[in-house]
Amino acid sequence: MPIATIILAAGQGSRMNSDLPKVLHKIAGVPMLGHVMASVAQIEADKTVVVVGHGAQQVAALATDIDETVSVTQQDVQNGTGHAVLQASELADFDGDIIVLYGDTPFIQPDTLTDMLTARAAGNDVVVLGFEATNPGGYGRLIVTDNKLQAIVEAKDCTEAQLAVSFCNSGVVCAPAALLFSLLGDVEANNKNGEIYLTDIIAIANARGLTCAAIHCAEVETMGVNSRQDLAVAEAAFQRQARAAAMENGVTMTAPETVFFAQDTVLGRDITIEPNVFFGPDVTVENNVTLKAFSHLEGCHISEAAQIGPFARLRPGAEIGGDARIGNFVEIKAAQIDQGAKIGHLAYVGDAHIGEDTNIGAGVIFCNYDGVFKHKSTIGKNAFIGSNTALVSPVVIGDNALIGSGSVITKDVPADALAVSRARQENKPGMGHRMMQRLRNLKAKK
Ligand code: UD1
Ligand code: MG
Fold it and tell me: How distant is the alpha carbon of residue 279 from its chain centre?
């Protein structure tokens, strides 16, 4: 059966107190809407419509940036969740099931969506995703009798008895497209908020003699974000789960509570992560890598058995070869470091290619930026760049070349050559002692 999804993301999120639309706030380095779209991508939906309103342009830009096949529709006035779904009218004659999701509920898992589709295929006309709430508060209550979902009642419209129900509405709904739009056609705005509620389709479906079901998922999946406090709680929940998954998959972490992953971090096996390592988006780490304490990684790929840190910073485009060593206070950006190369201490490597087994000494700087343009330098295999060398890019250093420390290299160095570019040392016998004496005498006279 073809599947379409509608992601509601038009709300203002006023409690975020932000110029940024709510669904663009990030959890684990990725906007909330990105988390929802990642789950949708995994169930291979045939079509996705994102309903935008507040901050429409920014939200639409992110949605189409993540997946250029999604369509975006505008809800000019936020007149309720049912009204929002009606804006996706291009799906009214879609020949399949629709799943409605919320942009501010980022953790719904693909397996849970598949469970909903299974419940639909088992003969339920409408399937709603519910959860047992520790604190039901303002959630809509799911009214179930004989395993059939009779109605969803918003907290504001609940009776005392209904408020006592702890089985709550996550907001995720699945129904055939034609039925969903037909049911919504009957919804009226007769509630305390004067809005068209998506949740009202359940009572209407029951009145038509149709069958509705509610399935359960873990509360953590349905966590919604309405404030910065919620955002921090959601971040913590994500990290807890990501750390547990990493360890489960063969990663050793001495202090897991101090390690922060991104939503898309990819880790191999037998990796060791020391305390306080931070992963930004788009990091892949292969097997047997050691990430030492206080390293900061984003947009990089680390190959098998490399050793990184402590205190290393890998920025976007850092491609680290197998067995390479990147030591303390080394920053690498847009650079390929080949197998076995070593950059041990206090260096900046930007826009460069470093060949196999080359050694970059302490304090080496790739001067890649002239104030207007960026330039790339290439170092061959097995070269040795002495400490405190400045490589003024673009330069090409050949295989096995040796550069004397403290050099400022502005010209290419051929393979096997020694390059030294600094003033020659001059020793003046006795002069050091005499100068010191003169200075001490001056001080004594003061
Ligand atoms: C909704 C449900 C409630 C459920 C809760 C779960 C309804 C009527 N209520 O309540 O049963 O327990 O979610 O979190 O559906 N949106 C639009 N346009 C609108 C209104 C909302 O796009 O006109 C979007 C919001 O941006 C948000 C989502 O729909 O992503 C949910 O809206 P929200 O106002 O947060 O609904 P709740 O009151 O939380
Ligand atoms: Mg909400």
Answer: 9
- Tens digit of pLDDT for each residue in 208-221? 999 999 999 999 99
Long-range contacts of the stretch 279-284 (C-beta < 8 A, 24+): 279/29, 280/29, 281/29, 281/30, 282/316, 283/314
**What is the CA 342 to chain-centroid distance, rounded?**
29
Residue 127: per-residue pLDDT: 98
Q: Which part of the chain is CATH 2.160.10.10?
A: 244-419
CATH code: domain 3-222 is: 3.90.550.10
Nearest ligand 1 atom to alpha carbon 139: 12
| Nearest ligand atom owner, CA of 158 | 1
Is the pLDDT confidence value at 206 over 90? yes
Is the CB of residue 168 less than 8 Å from the CB of residue 160? no
What's the CA-to-centroid distance between 285 and ligand 1, angstroms?
A: 38
Angstrom CA distances, 186 to 151, 190, 195, 208, 250, stand at: 15, 12, 13, 11, 53
Q: Where in the chain is the domain with CATH 3.90.550.10?
A: 3-222
Alpha helices in 255-404 (DSSP H): none
DSSP string for residues in 23-87: GGSEETTEEHHHHHHHHHHHTT-SEEEEEEBTBHHHHHHHHHHH-TT-EEEE-SS---HHHHHHT
Ligand 1 atom nearest the C-alpha of 82 is 15
User: Which band of pLDDT confidence, cut at 50, 70 and 90, is reported for residue 295?
Assistant: very high
In the reported structure, the alpha carbon of residue 48 is separated from the centroid of ligand 1 by a whole-number distance in angstroms of: 18
Q: Which two tokens stand for residue 160?
A: 């005392």
The arrangement of secondary structure in 244-419, i.e. its CATH architecture, is: 3 Solenoid (2.160)
Please tell me the distance from the alpha carbon of residue 368 to that of residue 349, in angstroms, as a whole number. 8
- pLDDT tens digits, 1-27: 899 999 999 988 889 999 999 999 999
Average pLDDT of every residue of the chain: 97
The bound ligand whose nearest atom lies closest to the alpha carbon of 6 is 1
Expressed in angstroms and rounded, the spacing between residue 168 Cα and the centre of ligand 2 is 13
pLDDT digits (tens, 9 = 90+) for 361-383: 999 999 999 999 999 999 999 99
Return the axis-axis angle of helices 56-66 and 32-42, rounded to nearest 10°.
40
d(CA 354, CA 321): 10
CB 413 within 8 A of CB 397: yes
C-alpha of 317 from chain center: 16
Do β-strands 26-27 and 3-9 pair in parallel, antiparallel, or remain unpaired? unpaired
Beta-carbon contacts of residue 372 (< 8 Å; ≥ 6 apart): none
pLDDT value, residue 172: 97
